[in-house]
Recover the amino acids of this structure.
């Protein structure tokens, strides 16, 4: 089996395993389809990929994999409920802090399979699994987890914002969960970059929020080509409704800034007419804590997996920070790992 690392190398054959690889930030990564506990094939493939992408190669695997005295990695506590006195902005901040504690997944294997065509109820089951296993996640998983943790928040509208950017002739994709509340906009999510995920509820329009993302992308020499914005997501975790991920597509490369703002403002008005927070049922605020509380056996298994995955990802992340700089090569390395 061969792993494709960038779109410029798509001529490489991935044979029958191509359906198990997905793309994010111009890099193809494996997806765990075996569920939990992770099967031996997926586990071996993950470590094999780490030897290929990590600067220390096989040495880092030998150092970590069979080490018996690995430090215990604490499992973050999910913010499943809030007292009425906690404001919506503070709730969103706590949710983002929880996802940040889970860490960004640098292992090259996405632990949770997310299919956009699944109904909301199915995606919410995936979110519960993320909480049980407490493993590092990527941007698409963070969107699903964010939907689950914001279910039942009165007056809060959630919608997806997807970005297609170009850096060094490579295409990169990213997605966050947009939030609107009381006339203000923000976002939560997961990224290697702090300013490409969480945005507090301080933007007065959807256009302001999106243009802020574009401004942050420019800091990393990325050119935003397309932006897709979905529709409000229902708050009922048992709904069979399918999320609309691309109700609006703005081609930033051919549209003027004025035209982009107009399209985004028009879409924001459309979303207000399709608001889902008004349909919240009295029971949707209960996240069924018992369904995400793992047994001691599952917790023990999760802790072992998280310890290995956390250490592998942390070493990569530390290496990245050590070599961080402002040159294009540094940006490229940080994006590719």
């Amino acid at each position: 089996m061969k792993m494709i690392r960038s779109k410029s190398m798509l001529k490489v054959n991935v044979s029958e395993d191509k359906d198990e690889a997905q793309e994010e930030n111009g890099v193809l990564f494996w997806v765990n389809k075996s569920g939990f506990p992770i099967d031996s094939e997926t586990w071996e493939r993950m470590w094999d990929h780490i030897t290929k992408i990590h600067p220390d190669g096989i040495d880092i695997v030998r150092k970590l994999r069979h080490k018996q005295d690995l430090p215990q990695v604490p499992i973050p506590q999910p913010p499943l409920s809030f007292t009425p006195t906690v404001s919506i902005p503070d709730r969103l901040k706590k949710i983002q802090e929880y996802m940040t504690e889970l860490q960004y997944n640098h292992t090259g294997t996405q632990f949770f399979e997310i299919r956009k065509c699944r109904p909301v109820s199915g995606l919410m089951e995936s979110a519960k699994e993320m909480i049980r296993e407490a493993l590092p996640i990527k941007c698409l998983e963070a969107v699903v987890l964010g939907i689950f943790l914001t279910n039942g928040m009165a007056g809060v509208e959630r919608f997806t914002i997807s970005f297609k950017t170009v850096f060094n002739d490579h295409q990169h994709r990213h997605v966050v969960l947009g939030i609107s509340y009381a006339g203000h906009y923000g976002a939560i999510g997961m990224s290697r970059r702090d300013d490409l995920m969480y945005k507090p509820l301080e933007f007065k329009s959807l256009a302001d929020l999106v243009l802020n993302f574009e401004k942050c992308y420019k800091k990393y020499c990325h050119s935003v080509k397309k932006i897709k914005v979905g529709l409000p997501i229902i708050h009922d975790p048992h709904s069979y409704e399918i999320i609309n991920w691309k109700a609006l597509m703005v081609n930033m490369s051919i549209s003027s800034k004025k035209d982009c703002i107009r399209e985004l403002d028009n879409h924001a008005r459309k979303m207000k007419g399709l608001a889902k927070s008004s349909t919240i049922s009295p029971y949707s605020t209960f996240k069924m804590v018992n369904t995400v509380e793992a047994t001691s056996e599952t917790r023990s298994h999760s802790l072992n997996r998280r310890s290995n995955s956390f250490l592998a990802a942390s070493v990569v992340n530390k290496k990245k920070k050590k070599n961080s700089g402002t040159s294009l090569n540094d940006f490229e390395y940080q994006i590719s790992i």
In short: The first helix runs from residue 40 to 53. The two ends are 19 Å apart (CA to CA). Strands lie at 21-24, 27-31, 109-110, 157-167, 170-181, 184-188, 199-203, 223-229, 248-251. Confidence is low (pLDDT under 50) at residues 1-19, 294-300, 318-337.
